[in-house]
Amino acid sequence: MTEPTRTGRRPGTSSTREAILTAARERFAEVGFDKASIRSIASAAGVDPALVHHYFGTKQQLLTAALDLPIDPEAILATLAAVPDELLGETVVRLIVGIWDSPVGVRAVAAFRAILSSADPSLARSFLLEVPLRAIRDRADNPPGTGATRAALVGSQMGGLLLARKVLELEPLASMPVDELADLVGPTLQRYLTGELAAPVAGGAASPQK
Amino acid sequence: MTEPTRTGRRPGTSSTREAILTAARERFAEVGFDKASIRSIASAAGVDPALVHHYFGTKQQLLTAALDLPIDPEAILATLAAVPDELLGETVVRLIVGIWDSPVGVRAVAAFRAILSSADPSLARSFLLEVPLRAIRDRADNPPGTGATRAALVGSQMGGLLLARKVLELEPLASMPVDELADLVGPTLQRYLTGELAAPVAGGAASPQK
């Protein structure tokens, strides 16, 4: 704060921030979100762990920064936490499509395309599994053991909707109002989240089927 | 046929074939499948239209060749045509996932990733709209006007499933047996194809909603 700057960030720190972000991307991709400790990321970047917390806050916030996401996933998760179970499906559609369609959506779509064209999708998988899908999994794990399947199914439908609406710009989905999308796709997510899934699901009891 | 070759293809024609394929890719991307005539493709390639038919057969077969797909979409469509309406959802899952998981699936997934990372997705959109999604649209257009929406929704779920299973390799979807996937995702496709869609759909009567 010795001189006024637009961001309020101190001069001379951007290379340290970048070193931390680079180390974080590498660790998250290598060992996944859970096993990548702030300590190991700090060590790889050659800085004190306290500095990582100082610049980026929590490990989730560091992951968000490492992915250069234009939004804070925790804000979305907090919103969903307040929604009753029976409205989760359409709320997820409204919330997520709302972000794609917002001014920051261009960056979200660009990040999605970058992830898809990357030769190694492990950073993307790490993010998906450890932040949005984990939240869904824990919320929707009923009966116990079904949460991971439910979350992955939700991810598959929303990923495909992003693909159709924003990457391929496939009509009528590309220009459909979000209310109509919520009516059409919401019930799919609702079944994935809270419906009785016909099949034996991962983590369930041993099945007599092949 | 003047000399034996493994493919039976005449020598000296590969540059002509390539010129036709290049012209076809450009025309399909520029004006879409419907408006790209064999005549205009032949003209751009500097050959007689009869030669295009001779090498590639129908315009659909030319599109398949232009996309370098490892499978013939018409064979899949013929299979689906024989399936009763109420089994369409799970059959689509079994048939399409079966291709991804087969030896040719590696190439199908590579083609999908190439499409996604291409700066201009119009060739992919042209293919999707004019071959698989058109077949679904015509089959599922009940009540009339709903077919395009139904087809695009099916495309969104299957595209997202390909993304989750084959690109991101997201568990438990990545290694789930196809029978279980058909049980989980089949009902989604079935509703998109033949269910009563809650919302006013594209092409339907004017809606009182905004």
TrEMBL record, chains A, B:
Residues 37-56 bind DNA. The keyword Nucleotide-binding does not apply. Coiled coil: none annotated. This is TetR/AcrR family transcriptional regulator. PANTHER family: HTH-TYPE TRANSCRIPTIONAL REGULATOR RUTR, TRANSCRIPTIONAL REGULATORY PROTEIN. One of its GO terms (molecular function) is DNA-binding transcription factor activity. Keywords: DNA-binding. Pfam families: TetR_C_16 (PF17920), TetR_N (PF00440). Residues 14-74 form the HTH tetR-type domain.
